[in-house]
Design a protein that fits this description.
The complex is a heterodimer of chains A (445) and B (305). Chain A has two domains: 301 residues, no CATH class; 104 residues, D-Maltodextrin-Binding Protein, domain 2 (3-Layer(aba) Sandwich). Chain A is 65% helix and 7% strand. Chain A is built from 17 helices and six strands. In chain A, the strands form two sheets. In chain A, strands 2-1-3-4 form a four-stranded mixed sheet, with no helix packed on it. A two-stranded antiparallel ribbon of chain A has the order 5-6. In chain A, helix 7 packs antiparallel against helix 15 and helix 12 runs antiparallel to helix 15. Chain B starts with a strand and ends with a helix. In chain B, the strands form three sheets. Chain B has a six-stranded mixed sheet with strand order 6-7-8-3-9-10. Chain B has a four-stranded antiparallel sheet with strand order 2-1-4-5, covered by helices on one side. The model of chain B has no long low-confidence stretch (mean pLDDT 89). Chain B has 305 residues and is an alpha/beta fold. Chain B has two domains: 219 residues, 3-Layer(aba) Sandwich (Rossmann fold), CATH 3.40.50; 66 residues, Alpha-Beta Plaits (2-Layer Sandwich). The longest helix of chain B has 16 residues. The chains are: A alpha/beta (445), B alpha/beta (305). Chains A and B meet through helix 1, helix 7 and helix 8 of A and strand 6, helix 2 and helix 4 of B.
Chain lengths: 445, 305
């Protein structure tokens, strides 16, 4: 009877029950949410302090034209009052004193005097208000001078927001509405998820192997199970830990986002994590109607994304890439006696992973370029690079070729790692090198 | 009947020969001592028995037939370099190791209860291994080795790391299991415990077996006709006469009784020695000195050098 299930369940349960696993798994989504949601939340919180600002308009252009709102009141004051309060603003009920010089049209500058620090928003608000009054003023002047009927309306009509609707022609020629934005976002997400798993869980496999070797328990274990079963049990068990963590994150993520929607004013329309992110960035620019249209566009083009294919490919490349790298990590863990010795081996493994993420960035901008193509064929980079390309649509032959190369590579890698592992776990005191590992490949059992 | 035998087993690594045509037979229900200097190839042989590695040539037999994969569930192995998962709880770990050896969870639990009660260590169950002392960890590991009641038990230096009291407890357990029908392969450098425990031995040196057989026969074979005599009386007057027939290795007349270590040369027997002695001195005790395993070990290995 194969004992792989027993090994697997030990690897799984001991890790899942660890405090650090539980803490990280539960805290991570909260941290991520905090990173995206808090700034947006704070930005959406209006300044609720009521301030009254005394305005002395020396130019008389703006007289009576600064409209007060709920929190900010503007009170125009005559010259004598201005002279009175400008010396001791502190003792008056005014929050600030706005001084508009007679020659504002040429200096384009006003002064805002206050005894406290003026919030950025308030400064912006005043700036915008004055600007729009003056612009209107100038416009009226121009209209009067040119005497063209409806000039104002005609000028307004020249403002044209443009949006590009990208259409992708399918193989059979039917047009599909596609969105580069959604492709980019999905590409990034899938690429990064695979990237983190390869790095974190690959190293976890290596540490697990080293722990068994260092504690010397490995000899007892392999007198009960075959080394290959022990290695595979560990690799699969740890993969399941990773998948559990991912599943919990997805569930928590959905819960947090739906919980956060209530808190975020104006986010009711948003339905996905990506949009929450997008919105937090846009909140600063104050969602204009054009932005909202764009959002609608992205939403509607979500339908063009082939989700079943993406999910299938994600699972495939996730597992394929993980098997490829984790078996390599296992082989290295078996070969070294101490963590310090592992360093020289870790760098060459991490390099293609890091390279993948860099190529991924460029592949997202140009998913059909030759760089993207070649790196999505090389098995060491294909899991990340190909995942970034798929949301944009990849020819099926390329996808199939990449998958076949990956399958052949990980089968070969698991086989080779098994051989190295079998020799390595019982080899103490021998300084391992790449050359030495190569020799172990040829050893008989 | 032999429970286990290896026939002309050869194993080499790269350019190093670990075993060269080694054959051993371990009779059922005995303790078999596997001896040899460091690096002789004992560990390799033990790993072959455990099917951790396979021999390059030769064959291994279990219960009179070629060894099968499943036979490992009937073997218990305590390696010299031992260890447990440090962060795992004692009970969980023992269960896991028992189940790896083919026990069901329930059977493993039942057997563990019995052992933990016997060793009075029930309170360790929920402790992490790293909280136990080295000796305590060894105790747990011993239990894990024999939990599944293996037919064949392989102990590599089982007593190292134990205090004399616990070593004694362990020895009694090993002997009890032998009485109950287990066969034990015992590898050690402690020759005293070999004399005490082993029915048979095999000595491996430089990848070859250079000596094997029942322990007593071997010691008998290496005895060199030396006798230890305690006597009362005056030996000096006959010393000259004795020098022709015997070689006197030690002579001490300072103690309560006088003593003599005497080796006879060709053509003598213990009978004639007694005869020669009784006429002149009063014999208090007369013992033939059988070489200790330690002496045999050193002699044989030196000869082989």
């Amino acid at each position: 009877m194969s004992k792989i299930g027993l090994v697997l369940s030990r690897e799984y349960t001991t890790r899942v029950k660890k405090k650090s696993f539980i803490v990280v798994t539960l805290l991570m989504p909260v941290l991520m949410a905090a990173m995206f949601i808090l700034p947006a939340y704070f930005m959406s919180q209006d300044d609720t302090k009521v301030r009254t600002i005394a305005v002395y308009d020396g130019s008389t252009i703006l007289l009576g034209q600064l409209e007060s709102n709920e929190y900010t009141k503007y009170k125009f004051i005559p010259e004598e009052e201005y002279n009175k309060i400008k010396e001791n603003l502190k003792s008056t009920e005014y929050y600030a004193l706005l001084i508009i010089h007679p020659n504002i049209l040429t200096t384009k500058t006003v002064q805002l005097v206050s005894t406290s620090n003026i919030p950025f928003d308030l400064k912006n608000q005043i700036q915008n208000k004055i600007r729009s009054v003056i612009e209107k003023e100038k416009m009226a002047e121009v209209i009067k001078q040119t005497a063209i009927p409806d000039l104002e309306a005609r000028i307004k009509a020249t403002k044209t927001p443009i949006s590009v609707n990208t259409i992708k022609l399918g193989e059979s020629g039917e047009a599909k509405k596609s969105s580069t934005e959604i492709g980019m976002i999905l590409g990034y997400i899938f690429g990064f998820v695979i990237y983190f798993f390869l790095l974190i869980y690959g190293q976890m496999v290596m540490q697990g192997v080293m722990e068994e070797k260092q504690s010397r328990i490995v000899e007892v274990i392999i007198s009960s199970v075959k080394p290959f079963e022990l290695m595979m049990g560990k690799i699969i068990g740890i993969a399941m830990v990773g998948l559990t963590q991912l599943a919990i994150w997805i569930i928590l993520g959905i819960a947090i986002i739906s919980g956060a929607r209530g808190m975020l004013p104006g986010a009711e329309k948003a339905g996905t994590a990506q949009e929450i992110m997008a919105q937090s960035q846009m909140a600063a620019q104050a969602g204009s109607p054009a932005e909202l249209d764009k959002m609608q566009d992205i939403l509607s083009s979500l339908g063009s994304v082939n989700f079943p294919l993406i999910i299938f490919c994600f699972i495939f490349f996730f597992i394929g890439g993980y098997l490829l790298y984790s078996s390599l990590y296992a082989a290295i863990g078996s070969a070294v006696d101490a963590p310090e010795d592992a360093q020289q081996f870790i760098m060459p493994i991490m390099m293609p992973i890091i390279l993948s993420i860099m190529v991924m960035m460029s592949a997202i901008k140009n998913p059909e370029g030759s760089v993207a193509f070649w790196f999505s064929m090389v098995p060491f980079t294909s899991p990340i690079v190909m995942m970034a390309r798929i949301p944009f649509g990849v020819p099926y032959w390329q996808l199939a070729l990449s998958m076949i190369i990956l399958i052949v590579s990980f089968v070969g890698m698991v086989w080779a790692a098994g051989k190295i592992y079998r020799t390595g776990i019982l080899m103490y005191g021998k300084k391992a090198s790449w050359k030495e590992l190569g020799k172990w490949l040829t050893y008989k059992s | 009947m032999d429970l286990f035998s290896a026939k002309e087993v050869t194993k080499s690594y790269a350019n190093f020969k670990a075993l060269s045509e080694v054959s051993i037979s371990v009779p059922e229900g005995t303790v078999f001592g596997l001896l040899g200097p460091n690096g002789a190839g004992k560990t390799t042989l033990i790993r072959i028995i455990n099917q951790i590695t396979a021999p390059d040539s030769g064959s291994i037999w279990f219960e009179g037939r070629p060894m099968k994969q499943d036979d490992i569930y009937r073997i218990g192995y305590l390696p010299e370099e031992r260890g447990l998962y440090k962060k795992m709880k004692v009970g969980e770990q023992a269960l896991y190791l028992g189940m790896l050896k083919g026990l069901s969870r329930r059977d493993a639990m039942r057997e563990l209860k019995i052992w933990f009660e016997k060793f009075e260590i029930i309170s360790w169950w929920d402790k992490k291994v790293m909280e136990l002392s080295k000796g305590m960890q060894q105790k747990v590991q011993f239990i894990c080795t024999v939990l599944h009641k293996p037919k064949l038990m392989i102990f590599d230096e089982p007593f190292s790391g134990f205090d004399p009291i616990n070593a004694e407890i362990l020895k009694d357990e090993i002997l009890r299991m032998k009485r109950e029908g287990a066969t034990i392969i015992f590898s050690t450098h402690n020759m005293e415990s070999v004399e005490e425990l082993c029915d048979h031995i095999a000595l491996i040196d430089k990848s070859k077996k250079i000596l094997d057989g029942p322990t007593l026969n071997i010691r008998e074979k290496y005895k060199s006709n030396i006798f230890d005599v305690a006597y009362k009386g005056d030996f000096a007057k006959i010393e000259q006469e004795f020098a022709n027939k015997y070689s006197i290795l030690a002579h001490d007349e300072t103690g309560r009784t006088n003593s003599l270590k005497i080796q006879f040369l060709n053509g003598s027997s213990s009978g004639s020695l007694i005869k020669d002695l009784v006429d002149h001195v009063e014999i208090v005790s007369f013992n033939e000195l059988i070489p200790s395993m330690n002496e045999v070990f050193i002699k044989v290995v030196k000869q082989n050098a």
